[in-house]
Specification:
Elongation Factor Tu (Ef-tu), domain 3, six-stranded antiparallel barrel, 3 helices, four-stranded antiparallel beta sheet, 8% helix, 2 domains, 41% strand, single chain, mainly beta
């Protein structure tokens, strides 16, 4: 059965397995989420549920958003996310989804917004090679280098690595392993790193390529 949940990245730490091996994990506060909308093939053309996460003051939402959330009785929620599922018969509007829908050992995909680095050069953005930091090289150690021949084709080829905006984009990391689940505190420990800074919102779902 497909499943998904909205969470907040707490940070990274490490735990030990039964053999005493160190496992680096990312802690995510997964839920509790409220089912704010249920979509079916008959009404919308596909099966999905919409989850709401984190309470927020009514004044921070529009009238349209408040009206939409009032139908489910969920109250004002800061984050909404739709998850397409194969079977939504077990969900109803107003239900609560918690971290215990996942179990240790499961494979998941985690989606988040990466840290933004603003306008960055080619060395940081594309891991370009730098010139030797010695006398005679000139003040071009971190520049992108040749743009190509100027007589023909008299233009810069597409996909040439250039400086520009780096980070602050949606990234999904596939096939991560759930190391531990604390149902009481709604904490999911996922082996390895997930996108985003501490406090960032992430979406966890079953691995699509598992």
């Amino acid at each position: 059965m497909k499943k998904g949940i909205i969470g907040k990245k707490i940070g990274m730490t490490q735990i030990f397995d039964a053999n005493g091996n160190v496992i680096p994990v990312t802690l995510i506060e997964a839920g509790p989420c409220t089912v704010t909308q249920k979509k079916t093939v008959e009404t919308d053309g596909y099966d999905a549920i919409q989850l709401g996460f984190m309470d927020v003051a009514d004044r921070k939402l529009s009238k349209a958003e408040l009206g939409h959330l009032a139908k489910s009785g969920a109250g004002a929620k800061k984050h909404l996310k739709e998850f397409r599922l194969d079977d939504i018969s077990g969900f109803n509007t107003g239900d609560t989804v918690t971290a215990d829908i996942f179990a240790a050992g499961e494979k998941v995909d985690v989606t988040g917004i990466t840290k933004g680095d603003g306008f960055s050069g080619v060395v940081k953005r594309w891991n370009a090679h730098i010139l030797k930091m010695t006398h005679g090289t000139g003040p071009v150690h971190r520049q992108p280098g040749s743009m190509g021949p100027n007589s023909s084709p008299s233009r810069i080829f597409k996909n040439k690595i250039m400086p520009g905006q780096y980070g602050n984009e949606q990234v999904t990391v596939l096939n991560l392993t759930v190391a531990k689940v604390d149902a009481e505190k709604n904490i999911v420990a996922i082996k390895g790193a997930v996108p985003g800074a501490r406090g960032g919102i992430v979406f966890i779902r079953n691995a699509v390529k598992g």
